[in-house]
Amino acid sequence: MNSTLIHRRAVLTALLAASAAALPLSSLPALAQGDPLPSWTDDQTKQAILTFVDAVTREGSPDFVSVPQRIATFDNDGTLWCEQPMYVQLAFALERVKALSNQHPEWKDKQPFKAVLDNDIEALAKSGMKGLMELIMATHAGMSTAEFETIASDWIKTARHPKFKRPYTELVYQPMLELLAYLRANGFKTFIVSGGGIEFMRPWTEPVYGIPPEQVVGSSIKTEYKMQNGQPELSRLPAISFIDDGPGKPVGINSHIGRRPVAAFGNSDGDLEMLEWTTMVSGGKRLGMLVHHDDAAREYAYDRKSHFGKLDRGLVEAPQRGWTLISMKDDWKRIFKFQ
Amino acid sequence: MNSTLIHRRAVLTALLAASAAALPLSSLPALAQGDPLPSWTDDQTKQAILTFVDAVTREGSPDFVSVPQRIATFDNDGTLWCEQPMYVQLAFALERVKALSNQHPEWKDKQPFKAVLDNDIEALAKSGMKGLMELIMATHAGMSTAEFETIASDWIKTARHPKFKRPYTELVYQPMLELLAYLRANGFKTFIVSGGGIEFMRPWTEPVYGIPPEQVVGSSIKTEYKMQNGQPELSRLPAISFIDDGPGKPVGINSHIGRRPVAAFGNSDGDLEMLEWTTMVSGGKRLGMLVHHDDAAREYAYDRKSHFGKLDRGLVEAPQRGWTLISMKDDWKRIFKFQ
Known about the structure:
- The structure is a homodimer.
- Chain A is 42% helix and 15% strand.
- The first copy, chain A, is an alpha/beta fold.
- Chain A has a 7-stranded mixed β-sheet, with helices on both faces.
- Chain A starts with a helix and ends in an 8-residue tail after the last helix.
- The interface between A and B is large, with 37 and 37 residues.
């Protein structure tokens, strides 16, 4: 027996012991029959989800929603996976700048590239949105869509998170995976609606979240169809096509889905318009939820002052709109599968 | 018994008699067991479809395609429904100009509106693409997406085709409805990829074709998210967002679907890039088909010189690429359900 197996067995034993000790006997039958949300604490937040799903799926319910109309949308960064210490896609862009730098000797003296190569985070921050766009164009354009898919897929397989030392695709929130599966089991179609790049996400959303490419909405750059050596390809151009963030999210939802969601999940001020668009309807039960990052021990704690995933206006708007804040600390028994 | 019922019974009797007379006995069991394409003549074209579906869906076949990859895309105008004597959406725009003209007294003296109000087709044609865009902006923008959906839905319910005197939604091709259902029964996800307006199509594609809004790709104008009297809405702006035609079709497919189709169906030169993108792959069986309008008796006959749905380059490219031309006259036993 190797050490990994021993470790796994020890963890399993500890988990079983902990479960038996922590759970009241009365809740065991529910678990045995398959609690759909086992990583969620049995509290008001979990109850809000169960109550909503019951209300919109039970025949005869005044809030019944037909299956085709059961659309649920999820932000990605900070809602389905970890967005600290920086967006995963930004980590990708920075590593691509380093990987491509010997083809671009001019970058040594040119911002924002110099800042990236010098690991000068302050100078990088100073370059602002303009600098960020330059980095994206230099690393995300100038190749075919097929080539970019290979580059992004290869990177996501090998890159590791600086704190957790694990692939980013293991830094997805276990309670949200359960929520996605639970909604789908109840006839919902689940969509990602993210400010992140649509083609950065699509190669891995199906194996990781069970969400196929055609149900991923995101930001994009322009592409152009052309024949290259007698074969058709889509060439990625250095020009923004669409920013799927803030007020762009309802626009992206309308463009890609063509229906108004009945449930939406986010974590930052960039998600508020999506939650407004979903929940501010006359008649009918709707669900809006914001993941609140308040668990410095198991993940990160941040909201109003964060560079990534800032949640400020949302903390004010949530109670006014009837949106639920999900406390990672209190509402989630575990955050990652490996914990 | 009213006359409609009498008529129906007569038609049914005639159909049964015709079937029994025309079909060799050997094909009757296949029909009894449910021929999936009963409106298609039993010829090479039908066989090409059956052979393709068998090749990509049979376990162990060298051309097997997994269910998530079974994407089939369909042009709309001229491929799924009638596009003569003009695109249905253009008929809608012209009628909207007339309906709105008393709010716009200036249109009486201003092209291309004057041409519409005077029924002056020649002057309208002269106004070209620029004129067409002006008509679209005047009739398709300046309201919320919800308002536009109501306007378009109401129109499609009451408008009648000038030749067939029936709702446009009855002028869908019965053989193509059977093909859509047959592909779906074999694990395909069916998409519309049309040069037409995405929001013009979405209100009726689900009841008419079984294609939900999220599987409709089309041309679009820009929309903007805003709060109006304390309610969120998407406002339709007089600016083009995307033209889903010609080389735009692979771009639209990539943006909305994120996978390359394995089968594509069109009828005009505006569909050729979609068929190239679908079929020009190394390895794996693919299907590209073009509906050829060669039936003046039952529908219309047109190709190289048509204003709408011109098929010129496609007639040259089809044999080179291995695409099948569907002869409406020879390959389709009937065109519309009511015939």
